[in-house]
């Protein structure tokens, strides 16, 4: 007997790296699982589809999974924007999903068939604000965002938290998601002289901004969200240009615990390259699936959903369980600082 | 204040110079074939990738390469992209010379799509860091910061543009290219090898684009398979703004666009009293484009088309 | 008088009845206002310049209805420019063009056309990829566009409209001996037929001013003769016809009055006989009998000098 | 000197040609001797332009041969034909409007006969002083007659042995037409052979040595120009009385 | 035969799985967009690269008038009418400034217009929700019949596409269509025969914008979520491509073009990036083999009908 899991994420296009490495983490554990004979004799099949980070493609994929009786659970949509369009479809066909989009709004629309196994952006933007106020003694912040769902959302939350903690937001500037030249914006920022800059955007803009910021002599501390948790952030910006920049991310360091270090080694052995920033989550999601299969009454979508909402899974990143909205009860979040060519953990929550 | 002004001027000049290198390619191709070459942005991208490839292939360690080796590497990359341009013209545009005007344009879209995905498949879709060849020296000028890279870009761009201007307007080859662009059958009757002239254009256009790509990649320290799309569109806008087909027009349009972008970022929030943020920069740029074209429908330096003197028949 | 039909010779009588029918249709549309009154086209101190370069310099003249006016003059004298200004293709730099009390200069090109001014072009400008018939049908646009919604939404009305247009156009095509080409693409016609079609297109809306820019250019003798005959037939008492032409045989045969342009100025105007007799015109444009003799002499001289006697080929 | 013994400069035999799949010319025989002015007459669409186009390689020959100075040039591309010394001055002038007068000449200089550009240009300027006067002006600003002179001058930049002129009098004022014919005579005197397509029958036959009458893609009539001028068939042909058989005069 | 097969396909589709119905819906929306844009490009000969703006206008009109965003919940049909009017007005607003421009200048200005609209949608957060877009749109319904499931939307689209295609086809055959053809062939000569080219072009822009806007309404009603991502420049380019690959100026051609460019990537879904490469190369080959489209302009619906019924 077997069950099929639908995987949807960006497999081609500019975000393909994130999508593939995330899915690879999942496959890594599933392969081990199947090799060991599955869970209670049930093996897991994978149906991987490309959503190109495009909502329209995402809905077609969603429909495809819905139509396919054998798919009982979805591991879907890296991007909040895509999840926004696909969740209603999954809801309609009672397909339980583990959604990766981190925008807080996703869990607030009353969906019964979704859980989010990662911290949402509330968590992702709280830690840096506290760190800036308490550890850096920052009085003023300047926010730059790329006017995308993720970038704008998370930077707004940072702003709120920063003000709530007694700081002052000097200005919010927007850039286009395709921009590579920030010199004009930086000249602007320089004249305002903020203590920290929060940049709500994704790679490669994070690296480009860091580089140009340093080159133009802007002294503020740069704080970026999870997209920056990748070695490229340091290599593309140039090591000297990113020293001291902070990155907030839901993922623990790859050497944080023996379990994670073990995962990292396995990943490298299997795929011949280092794990991506979200691979560990794919891995953990597979472990959640394992727990679900163990506790499920049957393998229908409804049964799986029930099990998913009540699961208590021991994973490489700790024990995970969901509240009634589908949000993680305890969502770990980590803050790193760039030191040399490494990310050093400086805080966690 | 003076510092910011100088800083922003330098920023605009740098961006403008890169746009100009690409816009020139659009304009040259348009001038000869009356065709918008949508794949031109990809020549820009190929330039960066070709340079990176030759560099890692021949030199291996990027850090230790001397100036001579570097120039050699660039020459190889530029020529390679130039030849690719010629090849693409032969394969994808030449068969369409006698068909409607939309056809080659859309064929170029196909080329663009293929090149981007081709590079994505071979080199990976994610952006790749690109080594900077200019020492990261900074010079302070009245409070503004100018990097050596910026100066390098400006010099390189102006030298290339001046060379192109002389080539087109002063040399026999240039006159021949212009003759072919105006009336290909007659040019052939007069003993001009039109294919050669067109190949020339498709060699130098992509070559300039590739030069822009290399400068761009080393300035920003990054390259990606999709880098040509945005910059290409900007440069194309600049070429239209200046009057497509006109070489000085392409340069002028590029600098105007760059100053509008930089100025828009710096001034929009101030001028609108905070209502319009920097996110409206592109709206401003397009609005200015539209306004200019309303006053001069053929662009700033484009030749106005008088109704009866040139028979302007169907476009496609 | 009855609505003037194309031509008056009796052997063309078979054209007549349907053309009356056409008149009704044209009147029913909104192209022309009121009755067919005779009107005069007037140029007053007309000027055209490009920058500093003056191409039409202070031209004043009148074109009377019922006559064919020839405009001749050396290349670059400004003949086409006159036509282009009258039809609204060029903006007038100074002076005024008026059709009776209506000032044409300053009006938009399509408004001028709808005031009853039709033209042909020195370089033929047909709608190449449309059929011959469509080239004519589309001229009904100004008259029929008002009811286009009805035409789109109510098929029987559309059919009626299409019939109306077709009848008139086929009539005109027959007049120019083009009826066999009705469904051919205009661009595929032989050159001479294209010229005729362009004139036919100018006639669909029954214009009161007909401007022809070198209608005989590129035509052979046979076609020129055909054209000459047609032009004469197109003459009606209330129509102003202006023909720019280099073919002197045609001009001298068909025109009632001739205007000679030179360097953008009016050099001379008068009847064909007066023009031919004018020494100024001969000097500037026609060339004298001596000139012709000179060439003949030169040709002879060359033959004797080179000693060429052409070899007969089998 | 009679040229009966001399080999013809251009010899066309049994030429059929057309555009794409459209056949236009049918079994054409035609010869041009050295220093001759050969005239081609014929109504519109007869195939005169196509004949010149076939010689210069624009239209594709489907049968027959074209020999220039004894070399078969069928299949050569236009730019190669010019380099052999066969210049084609196309119908409708076709000057480069957006180039200056002098640039038009530069574009046409292919350096065939070894004369430098300056020498050739000065020769052209001598023939057409108006071109010298307007050398730096835009070609589009010139009047029709001046443009025709430029077109001929441009063809001369290739130092041709044979110059093909396609309706040089088209759209020109009578007086200018006479000037153009004088120039043709002068060119011939200076040693260039000429193949002239004309609608202006009288003048053409007056100046030409030998003439061919084309209709619907075939040679219908040929003979020495002076004899042809008196032939009644000429006027018959021009008025459309098509004779099916080829007539020798 | 062909007709029977087509009808069979149309009737059979809703009985296939929902995935196919969704794919068909996507296809039909693109056909609708293609028919709309073709008026400007194929009939009037004006290269418009900003067509997606009208699509966005329609979609956002629905999103604003039938969602919690502004608390409005107007009936579907009323919104269609409103969107059609808004679309027409936007079309004229775009048309007015660009009428003087030709060819490539027109292309870049319309492109700029499309971008301006998209940037506005992305930044007027208070109205449009910014990049987050507007979610939880009402289910559409006409006289009590709900139109929300893929099959229901499918039938709605079939009806709309047939109606619009017939309308546009009759328009092309009318005197206005002839005038558009004349403008396409030679705009100055068209003026010379008395065509007010400004009005005729505005009519083209307005009709095309109206159709684009209606397509937007249906799109919004079927996705029940709108965001600026769906209205990127690439969409405009894709529609132009559909038209050219299929056959410029021909409604049948648009169907073929849409089928190739929308269905093929779907069929080749397994091949990830390779399918895009394949599509790019296929585009080049198709255009070289048939530069004016797979279906020639002359093979219009009337030929098809005549062919089918043997006359
Ligand atoms: N767009 C323009 N810019 C500058 N000069 C122009 C322009 N159009 C025409 N001209 C000039 O105006 C003059 C008159 O030209 P026009 O075409 O009216 O001559 P024409 O009498 O019709 O000659 P032809 O018999 O050769 O047709 C010419 O000297 C020409 O060079
Ligand atoms: N490019 C072309 N493609 C196809 N057919 C052509 C082409 N050019 C000319 N023809 C056809 O070839 C035939 C002969 O044309 P050609 O131009 O040689 O005649 P011509 O004698 O020069 O006439 P004219 O006096 O009008 O210049 C005509 O029927 C014409 O339609
Ligand atoms: C970091 C990202 C690229 C995506 C993010 N997880 C989202 O919700 O869209
Ligand atoms: Mg003229
Ligand atoms: Mg000819």
Automatic annotation (TrEMBL), chain B:
<protein>
    <submittedName>
        <fullName>Branched-chain amino acid transport system permease protein</fullName>
    </submittedName>
</protein>
<feature type="transmembrane region" description="Helical">
    <location>
        <begin position="141"/>
        <end position="168"/>
    </location>
</feature>
<feature type="transmembrane region" description="Helical">
    <location>
        <begin position="43"/>
        <end position="60"/>
    </location>
</feature>
<keyword id="KW-0812">Transmembrane</keyword>
<dbReference type="GO" id="GO:0015192">
    <property type="term" value="F:L-phenylalanine transmembrane transporter activity"/>
</dbReference>
<dbReference type="GO" id="GO:1903806">
    <property type="term" value="P:L-isoleucine import across plasma membrane"/>
</dbReference>
<keyword id="KW-1133">Transmembrane helix</keyword>
<comment type="similarity">
    <text>Belongs to the binding-protein-dependent transport system permease family. LivHM subfamily.</text>
</comment>
<dbReference type="InterPro" id="IPR052157">
    <property type="entry name" value="BCAA_transport_permease"/>
</dbReference>
<feature type="transmembrane region" description="Helical">
    <location>
        <begin position="189"/>
        <end position="216"/>
    </location>
</feature>
<dbReference type="GO" id="GO:0042941">
    <property type="term" value="P:D-alanine transmembrane transport"/>
</dbReference>
<feature type="transmembrane region" description="Helical">
    <location>
        <begin position="251"/>
        <end position="271"/>
    </location>
</feature>
UniProtKB/TrEMBL annotation, chain C:
<dbReference type="GO" id="GO:0015188">
    <property type="term" value="F:L-isoleucine transmembrane transporter activity"/>
</dbReference>
<dbReference type="GO" id="GO:0042941">
    <property type="term" value="P:D-alanine transmembrane transport"/>
</dbReference>
<feature type="domain" description="ABC transporter">
    <location>
        <begin position="41"/>
        <end position="288"/>
    </location>
</feature>
<dbReference type="Pfam" id="PF12399">
    <property type="entry name" value="BCA_ABC_TP_C"/>
</dbReference>
<keyword id="KW-0067">ATP-binding</keyword>
<dbReference type="InterPro" id="IPR051120">
    <property type="entry name" value="ABC_AA/LPS_Transport"/>
</dbReference>
<dbReference type="GO" id="GO:0005886">
    <property type="term" value="C:plasma membrane"/>
</dbReference>
<dbReference type="GO" id="GO:0015192">
    <property type="term" value="F:L-phenylalanine transmembrane transporter activity"/>
</dbReference>
<dbReference type="InterPro" id="IPR027417">
    <property type="entry name" value="P-loop_NTPase"/>
</dbReference>
<dbReference type="Pfam" id="PF00005">
    <property type="entry name" value="ABC_tran"/>
</dbReference>
<dbReference type="GO" id="GO:0005524">
    <property type="term" value="F:ATP binding"/>
</dbReference>
<protein>
    <submittedName>
        <fullName>Branched-chain amino acid transport system ATP-binding protein</fullName>
    </submittedName>
</protein>
From TrEMBL, chain D:
<protein>
    <submittedName>
        <fullName>Branched-chain amino acid transport system ATP-binding protein</fullName>
    </submittedName>
</protein>
<feature type="domain" description="ABC transporter">
    <location>
        <begin position="10"/>
        <end position="241"/>
    </location>
</feature>
<dbReference type="InterPro" id="IPR027417">
    <property type="entry name" value="P-loop_NTPase"/>
</dbReference>
<dbReference type="GO" id="GO:0005524">
    <property type="term" value="F:ATP binding"/>
</dbReference>
<dbReference type="Pfam" id="PF00005">
    <property type="entry name" value="ABC_tran"/>
</dbReference>
<dbReference type="GO" id="GO:0015658">
    <property type="term" value="F:branched-chain amino acid transmembrane transporter activity"/>
</dbReference>
<dbReference type="InterPro" id="IPR003439">
    <property type="entry name" value="ABC_transporter-like_ATP-bd"/>
</dbReference>
<keyword id="KW-0813">Transport</keyword>
<comment type="similarity">
    <text>Belongs to the ABC transporter superfamily.</text>
</comment>
<dbReference type="InterPro" id="IPR003593">
    <property type="entry name" value="AAA+_ATPase"/>
</dbReference>
<keyword id="KW-0029">Amino-acid transport</keyword>
<dbReference type="InterPro" id="IPR017871">
    <property type="entry name" value="ABC_transporter-like_CS"/>
</dbReference>
TrEMBL record, chain E:
<dbReference type="InterPro" id="IPR043428">
    <property type="entry name" value="LivM-like"/>
</dbReference>
<keyword id="KW-0812">Transmembrane</keyword>
<dbReference type="GO" id="GO:0005886">
    <property type="term" value="C:plasma membrane"/>
</dbReference>
<keyword id="KW-0472">Membrane</keyword>
<feature type="transmembrane region" description="Helical">
    <location>
        <begin position="276"/>
        <end position="294"/>
    </location>
</feature>
<feature type="transmembrane region" description="Helical">
    <location>
        <begin position="52"/>
        <end position="70"/>
    </location>
</feature>
<feature type="transmembrane region" description="Helical">
    <location>
        <begin position="153"/>
        <end position="169"/>
    </location>
</feature>
<feature type="transmembrane region" description="Helical">
    <location>
        <begin position="103"/>
        <end position="121"/>
    </location>
</feature>
<keyword id="KW-1133">Transmembrane helix</keyword>
<feature type="transmembrane region" description="Helical">
    <location>
        <begin position="237"/>
        <end position="264"/>
    </location>
</feature>
<feature type="transmembrane region" description="Helical">
    <location>
        <begin position="27"/>
        <end position="45"/>
    </location>
</feature>
<keyword id="KW-1003">Cell membrane</keyword>
């Amino acid at each position: 007997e077997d069950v099929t899991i639908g995987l949807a994420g960006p497999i081609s296009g500019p975000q393909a790296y994130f999508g593939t490495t995330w899915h690879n983490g999942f496959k890594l554990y599933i392969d081990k699982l199947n090799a060991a004979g599955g869970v209670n004799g049930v093996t897991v099949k994978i149906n991987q589809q490309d959503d190109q980070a495009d909502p329209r493609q995402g809905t077609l994929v969603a429909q495809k999974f819905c139509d396919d009786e054998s798919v009982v659970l979805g591991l879907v949509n890296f991007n909040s924007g895509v999840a926004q369009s696909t969740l209603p479809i999954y809801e309609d066909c009672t397909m339980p999903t583990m959604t990766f989009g981190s925008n807080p709004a996703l869990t607030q629309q009353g969906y019964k068939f979704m859980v989010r196994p990662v911290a949402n952006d509330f968590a992702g933007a709280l830690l840096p604000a506290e760190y800036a106020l308490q550890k850096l003694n920052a009085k003023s912040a300047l926010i730059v965002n790329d006017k995308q769902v993720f970038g704008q959302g998370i930077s707004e939350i940072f702003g709120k938290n920063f003000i709530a903690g007694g700081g002052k937001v000097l200005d919010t500037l927007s850039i286009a998601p395709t921009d590579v030249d920030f010199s004009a914006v930086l000249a602007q920022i320089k004249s305002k002289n903020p203590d920290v800059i929060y940049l709500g955007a994704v790679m490669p803009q994070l690296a480009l901004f860091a580089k140009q910021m340093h080159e133009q002599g802007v002294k503020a501390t740069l704080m970026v969200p999870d997209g920056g948790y990748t070695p490229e952030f340091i290599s593309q910006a140039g090591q000297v240009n990113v020293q001291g920049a902070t990155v907030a991310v839901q993922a623990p360091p790859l050497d944080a615990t023996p379990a994670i270090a073990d995962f990292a080694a396995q990943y490298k052995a299997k795929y011949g390259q280092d794990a991506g920033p979200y691979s560990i989550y794919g891995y953990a999601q597979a472990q959640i699936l394992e727990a679900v299969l163990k506790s499920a009454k049957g393998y229908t979508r409804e049964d799986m959903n029930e099990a998913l909402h009540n699961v208590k899974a021991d994973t490489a990143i700790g024990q995970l369980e969901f509240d009634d909205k589908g949000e993680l009860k305890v969502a770990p979040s980590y803050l790193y600082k760039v030191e040399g060519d490494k990310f050093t953990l400086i805080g966690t929550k | 204040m003076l510092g910011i002004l100088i800083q922003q001027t330098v920023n605009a000049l740098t961006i403008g110079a890169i746009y100009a290198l690409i816009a020139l390619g659009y304009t040259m191709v348009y001038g000869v074939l009356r065709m918008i070459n949508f794949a031109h942005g990809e020549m820009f991208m190929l330039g960066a990738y070709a340079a990176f490839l030759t560099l890692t292939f021949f030199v291996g360690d990027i850090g230790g390469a001397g100036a001579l080796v570097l120039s050699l590497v660039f020459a190889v990359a530029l020529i390679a992209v130039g030849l690719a341009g010629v090849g693409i013209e032969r394969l994808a545009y030449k068969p369409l010379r006698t068909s409607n005007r939309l056809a080659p344009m859309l064929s170029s879209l196909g080329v663009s799509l293929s090149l981007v995905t081709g590079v994505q498949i071979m080199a990976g879709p994610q952006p790749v860091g690109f080594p900077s060849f200019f020492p990261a020296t900074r010079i302070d000028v009245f409070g503004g910061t100018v990097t050596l890279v910026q100066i390098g870009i400006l010099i390189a761009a102006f030298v290339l543009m001046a060379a192109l201007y002389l080539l087109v307007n002063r040399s026999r080859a240039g006159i021949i290219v212009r003759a072919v662009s105006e009336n290909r059958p007659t040019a052939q009757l007069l003993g001009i090898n039109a294919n050669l002239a067109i190949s020339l254009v498709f060699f130098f256009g992509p070559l300039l684009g590739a030069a822009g790509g290399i400068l761009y990649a080393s300035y920003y320290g990054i390259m990606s398979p999709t880098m040509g799309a945005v910059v290409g569109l900007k440069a194309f806008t600049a070429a239209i703004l200046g009057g497509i087909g006109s070489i000085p027009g392409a340069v002028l349009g590029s600098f105007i666009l760059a100053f509008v972008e930089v100025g828009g970022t710096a001034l929009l929030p101030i001028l609108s009293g905070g209502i319009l943020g920097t996110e409206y920069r592109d709206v401003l740029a397009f609005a200015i484009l539209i306004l200019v074209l309303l006053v001069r429908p053929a662009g700033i330096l484009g030749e106005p088309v008088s109704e009866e003197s040139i028979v302007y028949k169907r476009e496609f | 008088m009855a609505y003037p039909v194309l031509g008056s010779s009796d052997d063309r009588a078979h054209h007549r009845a349907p053309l009356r029918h056409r008149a009704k249709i044209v009147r029913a549309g909104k192209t022309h206002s009121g009755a067919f009154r005779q009107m005069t086209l007037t140029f007053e101190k007309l000027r055209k310049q490009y920058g500093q370069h003056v191409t039409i310099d202070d031209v004043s003249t009148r074109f009377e209805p019922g006559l064919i006016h020839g405009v001749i003059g050396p290349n670059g004298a400004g003949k086409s420019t006159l036509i282009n200004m009258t039809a609204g293709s060029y903006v007038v730099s100074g002076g005024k063009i008026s059709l009776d009390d209506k000032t044409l200069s300053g009006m938009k090109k399509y408004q001028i056309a709808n005031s009853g001014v039709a033209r042909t072009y020195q370089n033929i400008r047909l709608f190449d990829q449309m059929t011959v018939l469509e080239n004519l049908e589309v001229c009904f646009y100004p008259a029929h566009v008002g009811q286009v919604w009805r035409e789109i939404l109510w098929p029987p009305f559309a059919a009626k409209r299409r019939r109306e247009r077709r009848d008139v156009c086929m009539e005109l095509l027959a007049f120019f001996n083009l009826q066999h080409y009705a469904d051919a693409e205009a661009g595929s016609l032989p050159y001479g037929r294209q010229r005729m079609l362009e004139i036919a297109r100018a006639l669909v809306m029954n214009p009161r001013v007909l401007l022809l820019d070198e209608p005989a250019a590129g035509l052979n003798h046979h076609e020129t003769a055909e054209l000459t005959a047609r032009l004469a037939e197109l003459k009606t008492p209330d129509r102003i016809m202006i023909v720019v032409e280099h073919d002197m045989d045609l001009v001298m045969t068909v025109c009632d009055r001739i205007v000679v342009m030179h360097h953008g100025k009016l050099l001379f105007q008068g009847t064909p006989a007066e023009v031919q007799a004018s020494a100024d015109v001969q000097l500037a444009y026609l060339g004298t009998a001596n000139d012709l003799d000179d060439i003949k002499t030169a040709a002879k001289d060359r033959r004797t000098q080179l000693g060429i006697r052409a070899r007969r080929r089998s | 000197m009679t040229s009966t013994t001399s080999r013809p400069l251009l010899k066309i035999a049994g030429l059929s040609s057309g555009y794409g799949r459209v056949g236009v010319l049918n079994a054409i025989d035609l010869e041009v001797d050295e220093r001759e002015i050969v005239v081609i007459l014929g109504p519109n669409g007869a195939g005169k332009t196509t004949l010149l186009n076939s010689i210069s390689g624009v239209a594709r020959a489907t049968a027959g041969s074209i020999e220039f100075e004894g070399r078969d040039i069928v299949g050569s591309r236009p730019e190669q034909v010019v380099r052999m010394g066969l210049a084609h001055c196309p119908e409708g002038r076709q000057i480069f409007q957006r180039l200056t007068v002098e640039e038009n000449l530069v574009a046409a200089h292919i350096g065939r006969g070894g004369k430098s550009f300056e020498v050739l240009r000065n020769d052209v300027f001598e023939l057409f002083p108006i071109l010298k006067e307007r050398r730096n002006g835009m070609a589009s600003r010139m009047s029709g007659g001046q443009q025709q002179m430029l077109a001929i001058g441009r063809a001369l930049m290739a130092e041709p042995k044979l110059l093909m002129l396609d309706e040089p009098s088209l759209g020109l004022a009578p007086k200018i037409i006479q000037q153009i014919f004088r120039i043709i005579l002068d060119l011939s005197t200076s040693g260039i052979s000429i193949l002239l397509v004309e609608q202006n029958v009288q003048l053409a036959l007056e100046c030409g040595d030998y003439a061919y009458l084309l209709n619907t893609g075939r040679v219908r009539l040929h003979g020495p120009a002076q004899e042809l001028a008196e032939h009644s068939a000429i006027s018959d042909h021009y008025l459309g009385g098509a004779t099916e058989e080829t007539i020798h005069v | 035969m062909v007709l029977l097969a087509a009808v069979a396909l149309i009737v059979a589709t809703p009985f296939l799985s929902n995935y196919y119905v969704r794919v068909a819906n996507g296809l039909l929306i693109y056909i609708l967009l293609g028919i709309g844009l073709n008026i400007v490009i194929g009939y009037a000969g004006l290269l418009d690269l900003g067509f997606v703006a009208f699509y966005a206008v329609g979609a956002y009109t629905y999103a604003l008038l039938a969602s919690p965003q502004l608390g409005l919940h107007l009936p579907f049909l009323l919104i269609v009418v409103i969107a059609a009017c808004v679309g027409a007005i936007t079309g004229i607003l775009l048309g007015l400034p660009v009428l003087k421009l030709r060819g490539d200048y027109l292309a870049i200005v319309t492109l700029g217009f499309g971008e301006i609209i998209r940037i506005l949608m992305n930044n007027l957060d208070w109205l449009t929700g910014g990049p987050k877009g507007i979610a939880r749109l009402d289910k559409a319904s006409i006289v009590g019949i709900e139109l929300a499931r893929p099959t229901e939307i499918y039938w709605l689209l079939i009806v709309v596409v047939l109606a619009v295609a017939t309308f546009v086809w009759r328009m092309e055959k009318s005197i206005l269509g002839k005038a558009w053809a004349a403008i396409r062939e030679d705009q100055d000569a068209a003026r010379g025969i008395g065509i007010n080219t400004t009005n005729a072009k505005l009519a083209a822009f307005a009709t095309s914008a109206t159709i684009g806007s209606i397509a937007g309404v249906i799109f919004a009603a079927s996705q029940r979520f709108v965001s600026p991502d769906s209205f990127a420049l690439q969409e405009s380019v894709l529609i132009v491509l559909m038209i050219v690959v299929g056959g410029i100026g021909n409604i049948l051609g648009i169907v073929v073009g849409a089928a190739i460019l929308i269905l093929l990537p779907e069929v080749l879904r397994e091949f990830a990036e390779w399918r895009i490469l394949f599509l790019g190369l296929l585009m080049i080959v198709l255009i070289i083999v048939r530069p004016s489209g797979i279906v020639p302009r002359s093979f219009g619906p009337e030929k098809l009908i005549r062919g089918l019924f043997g006359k």
